[in-house]
Amino acid sequence: MLSAIHETFGDPSKVLKMEERPLPEPGPGEIRIRTGLAAIHNHDLLTVAGTYGYKPPLPAIGGSEAMGVVDALGEGVSEFQVGQRVAASGRGTWAQFYIAKAAGAVPLPNAIADETAAQLIAMPMSAMFLLDFVNAHPGSWLVQNAATGAVAKVLAKVAQKRGVNVVNLVRRDEAVAELEALGIKNAVSTAGENWKAQVADITGGAPIHAAIDGVGGPGAADLCAICGPGATIVSFGLMSGKPMEIPPAQLIFRDITVKGFWLAKLLPEAPKEKVAALMGELIGLIASGDVTLQVDGIYDLADIAKAAEAAGKGKREGKVLVRG
């Protein structure tokens, strides 16, 4: 099967190449999926670069999430049928076929398009779990930076449906209008001098009990400054490439707590009932149009280097996908 592999860690646009690999066989509890569309996530690019929390043995096929059609069943799998359309996480999804655990695969209703299904799990489920992680409840206030990101946009829309208030920080003035066009409220550009006063006007002085930091660097200190005493700051990403900068006074005198969030660790430990309920809620919101998963571009698998370069750009309308 045609596969996008890397034999070394490095710039994905340079180290990824196409190669024929043996067709994988599903083990017990697994399914083989003929890939339709696969997502290129930031963590996929970091994995290829060798800077993520997981390093695959080399040579490795890239990718971690896709949708497609069940092609073969492993021993003990009875909940799926060959030919069934599914979305599933798995190692090596940038290939014509990949292996996934049947327990984690999601059967797809006709209302979910392929372009949406290819990015249904990692980013949207991160948003769903983040809301629980910070104990968001109706009427409470949260703040998140990097609000134009895939996770942030889903989190904002789901929160609005649940009655949770979210301040959405962006770094460009024009991004405020971009979020408003998607129906996302309370967007504030930090490019202006008085953005913290804008946040206070939006919340009406109500305390912000949690912040989600996808940027790192000095942005973490800004989040602390606008949160209430005893707030939790959740580290979710490092778009700036710099460590979080938090003044000790915030931790000592304002009782700010800092936590890390990684869905890859939380998802396998979560009760199946919880995962199923959150996925059901998510699919319902997508089917109704309340949540939209945007696509920036679709590339052929043979053009994986160009696709990786496009996915690595800072400003995109949505996710970059590759055809299996």
UniProtKB/TrEMBL annotation:
Give an example GO molecular function. NADPH binding
**CDD domains per the record?**
ETR_like_2 (cd08292)
Keyword tags: NADP, Oxidoreductase
**Residue span(s) of domain Enoyl reductase (ER):** 10-322
SUPFAM superfamilies (UniProt xref): GroES-like (SSF50129), NAD(P)-binding Rossmann-fold domains (SSF51735)
Q: Locations of Basic and acidic residues compositional bias?
A: 14-23
According to the record, the residues making up region (Disordered) are 1-28
Name the domain of life.
Bacteria
Q: What is this protein called?
A: NADPH:quinone reductase-like Zn-dependent oxidoreductase
Name the source organism.
Answer: Breoghania corrubedonensis
